[in-house]
Amino acid sequence: MNEDVLIHQIEDDETSLKHYGTLHKSGRYPWGSGENANQRYMMFLDHVASLSKQGLSDVDIVKGLGLESTTQLRALKTIASNGVRRADVDQAMKLKDRGNSNVAIGRIMGKNESTIRSLLDPELQKRQDELVIVADMLRDKVKEVKYLDIGGGTENHLGISQTKLQTAVSMLKEDGYVVYKFQQPQLGTGKMTNMKVLTPPGTTFKELINNKDDIRTVSTYSEDGGRTFLGIEEPTIVNSKRIGVRYAEQGGTAKDGVIELRRGVDDISLGKARYAQVRIAVDGTHYLKGMAMYSDKLPDGVDMMFNTNKSDTGNKLDAMKKMKDDKDNPFGSVVRQKHYLGKDGKQLLSALNIVGTEDPDGRKTPGEEGAWYEWGKTLSSQFLSKQPPALAKEQLGITFNVKKAELDEINSLTNPAIKKKLLKSYSDGADASAVHLKAAGLPRTRNHVILPINSLKDTEIYAPQYKNGEKVVLIRHPHGGIFEIPELTVNNKNREAKSLLENAIDAVGITAKVAERLSGADFDGDTVLVIPNNNGRVKHAPALEGLKDFDSKTYKLPDGVEFHGNKQQLMGDVSNLITDMTVKGAPNEHIARAVRHSMVVIDAEKHNLDYKKSAVDNGIKALKLEYQGKTNGGASTLISRAGGKISVENRKARSAKEGGAIDPATGKLMWTPTGESYVRRTESPKTGKVTEKTIMKTFDSKKMAETDDAFTLSSGTNREAVYAEHANKLKALANEARKSMIETPSAKYNASANLAYKPEVESLNAKLNIAQKNAPMERSAQLFAETVVKAKMQANPSMEKDEVKKIRGQALNEARLRMGAKKEKIVLTNAEWNAIQAGAITNNKLNAILDHADLDQVKQLATPREKSAMVPAKVTQAKGMLSRGYTQAEVAEALGISTSTLNEAIK
Question: How many secondary structure helices (H) and strands (E) does the chain include?
Answer without folding.
Answer: 30, 25
